[in-house]
Amino acid sequence: MRWRALAAFICGSAALLGATPSAMAEDVTAAMPPGKTGDAQELGKSVSGVFVNAPVAQGGYAPDFMFRGFDNGGVILRDGVARGFGPGGVELAGVERTEFVKGVVSLLYGTTTSAFGAAANYILKKPEADYFLRGDASLGSFGFRRATLDLNTPLDPEKTLLFRGNLALQESKSFVDYVFNRGLYANPSVTKIFDNGDRLTLRGEANLSNSLTNFGLPTYLPSPLFLTLPRNLYAAVPANGGLRSNRYDASLRYEHAFNENWGATLVADYYRSLGAYGWLTGLGYAGGSEVSFGNGAHSFETVKNFDVQPSLKGKIETGPFTHNLFFGYERWSFDDSHKDEITAYSLGSINVFAPLYPGFVSYAAAQPASGIDSSWSNSAYAQDAIDIGPQVRLLLGGRYDYLASYQTIDDPTGALTGAQGSTASKGFFSKLTPRVGALMRPFENFSIHAGFGRSFIPNNGVRLEGGKLAPPEEDALYEIGARHSLFDKKLDVDLGVFDVTRDNVAALNPLNPTGFYSVVTGQQHSHGVEVGLGAQPTENLRLGLAATFLHAVVSRDSNTPSQAGSDLLGAPRRVFNLSANYNFDAEPLRGLSLSGNFYYASQTQATLPNTYGFVLPPKKMLSFSASYKLNDHVSVTLSGSNLTDGSNFSSTGVLLRGEPRTINMSASYKY
Question: What is the distance between the alpha carbons of residues 476 and 434, in angstroms, rounded to a whole number?
Fold first, then answer.
């Protein structure tokens, strides 16, 4: 059976079998319902422990996931590699497919991903030996328009020099007043295949966007007030909220095979982003039906990241044991510089039921501030996956990180930080983190896996009041799971149990969620059970169930002791997803594919610390998709999400409403 309901567990088993994350393509891709590879929000629903907490950007084409009650920590994998702390985000026009890695998998192969597996692994589009041209045009609710182009061609008769280029144009509005997004994405890549089989791939990306962001609402609004607000309310200052972002990335990947057992890979990546955005120093609740803004602020930010990772992979035999070895080194550097200006006056407040916004924000007498956040790391990692016969594999690995961080803030008037003057701080941190796992196959279609691991993650870009330097985050994971295939592999049953602890976790300052500073909570803890069922009763019909039962809490907090025991924001205790897909293969409906999906997430807390009686109601989302392949070249798709038009509230430190009912239509052409 080629379709699986629980990609994450398959990832875990495959990794312990010695495959890199990017080598799990068949199983993981099969776990995603056909026709859904372009919308990551739909993909995430089909995997237990993975869900989208807040509305995603760009109509679902620039996603951000929650994993086991935690956000992704800003780290993503590209082709199985975490490239330092850039490039930030991903545009799915440049992605072939999406894999989800959790638990022990996220600790393998030297990645810096947190121990809870807070990452989606994006397998990037690469040049191929074929000639093809693919185009897609989409229209949808709230002014959504998107067009993509995917061109691939060999550049020489021998097909040893290959080119692929991807282009995406998008424009969308929103159900929230004033909010919009316009973007351009371009991604050229070239692959050279040498006579000895070596492969060199050069890849570039440019992602340019102009938008007005929905800041959400302050978490201190009273519950009855928030739940009755107009859906289209923009609770900020439109004249001050624009965002312009230009992101560029250049990467190199070189692969060399010494022989059938040993090979080396070099990955290098340089990322740079230039951004200008507006924000508010004091978004908060002012009593009654008033939301206050504080002063307006503009920031101009430059982020640079360089990462290089040489690695060596091989296999050796020692008597009855087979050792699958992996060694690597990583060097990355990260720089985030910002120049800020804060208005000399307050922007006032609005009545949320009759908002009157400032029509103009003056920075003529703005108060300046600036700062730099720099860090670098030298890291080495090693791993040995030991085969003890065909039924048992043991995994032993570790990573050593040496981190250095430097941060300065210059605030001559105190408008940014509340204290006049300059601060500078630096620190050096080091840690050896272990990773241990085991996989046993006592029967042909039954397997058990278990794992333990720790990770050590720098809190890059985190600014604390008083000029303090945020210590690195440290995570610990314990996990056990089993998988069983029944009825000639027509039914797969997956079960996983996990326990995750995170120390030194950075979060938005709850007193000012759109402000400059963060806070570092003491400790967060999540434990739970993940269940997955994948069934294929006929060749045409596929059914899936993904369920997650978890409890994620603040277990200790020295900054805000009252938060201890509070449920984490965006962490429902129960999540269920039911999916079905049917492909017609007989006339007159041959080429038609129908799919449906129902997603349920239980109530979540609105505030940290949790406020008695202020909980967000459960999310319930019904979606469908109908795709018809007219011929070998043309296909059309009609899809809809949140068909019941539920509110689907969420909280990420600010309160947000989910997207209303949306309908999208698209047409694709392949030549």
Answer: 10
User: From 3.30.450.20, 1.10.4030.10, 2.40.170.20, 3.10.300.10, which CATH number describes the 7-670 domain?
Assistant: 2.40.170.20
The answer to whether the CB of 405 falls within 8 A of the CB of 469 is yes
Whole-number pLDDT of residue 424: 86
Distance (Å, rounded) from C-alpha 302 to C-alpha 85?
A: 14
Q: Which helix (H) or strand (E) holds 13?
A: helix 7-16
Residues 553-572: pLDDT tens digits? Answer: 988 877 677 778 888 888 89
What is the Rg, in whole angstroms, of the alpha carbon atoms belonging to the chain?
A: 25
Give pLDDT, residue 46.
66
CA 292 – CA 347 distance, rounded (Å): 8
Q: Any idea which residue has 């497919």 for tokens?
A: 97
Q: What are phi and psi of 174, to 5 degrees?
A: -155, 160
The count of other CB atoms within 10 Å of the CB of residue 294 is 20
pLDDT at 185: 96
Grouping H, G, I as helix, E, B as strand and the rest as coil, residue 313 is strand
Residue 655 to residues 11, 605, 617, Cα–Cα distance (Å): 33, 10, 13
205-217 per-position pLDDT tens digit: 999 999 998 888 8
- Report the alpha-carbon distance of residue 390 to residue 334 in Å, rounded: 44
Kindly provide the b/e burial profile for residues 643-664, where b requires at least 16 CB atoms within 10 angstroms of the residue's own CB: eeebebbbbbbbbbbbbbbbeb
pLDDT tens per residue across span 110-120: 455 554 555 67
Would you list the DSSP string of 187-206?
EEEEEEE-TTS-EEEEEEEE
Q: Give the start-to-end residue ranges of the domains of the chain.
A: 7-670
Q: What is the mean pLDDT of the chain?
A: 83
- In tens, the pLDDT along 123-142 reads 899 999 999 999 999 999 99
Those residues with Cβ within 8 angstroms of residue 391's Cβ, 6 or more apart along the chain or in another chain: 440, 441, 442
Beta bridge partners of 350: 291
**Rounded CA separation 51/544 (Å):** 16
Q: What is the pTM of this model?
A: 0.86
> Would the CA dihedral through 43, 45, 49, 55 be positive or negative?
positive
Distance CA 192, CA 182 (A): 34
Chain-centroid distance, C-alpha 568: 18
**How large is the average pLDDT for residues 501-530?**
75
CB atoms within 10 A of CB 353: 11
Query: How far is residue 39's CA from residue 612's CA, in Å, rounded to a whole number?
Result: 36
- What confidence tier does 89 reach under pLDDT thresholds 50, 70, 90? low
* Distance of alpha carbon 86 from alpha carbon 461, whole angstroms: 12
**Closest among 201, 202, 185 to 149, alpha carbons compared:** 185
Are the CB atoms for 231 and 281 separated by under 8 Å?
A: no
Other CB atoms within 10 Å distance of the CB of residue 95: 20
Contacts of 631 (CB under 8 A, 6+ apart): none
Q: 562 — phi, psi (to 5°)?
A: -65, -15
Residues paired with residue 419 on neighbouring β-strands, in sequence order: none
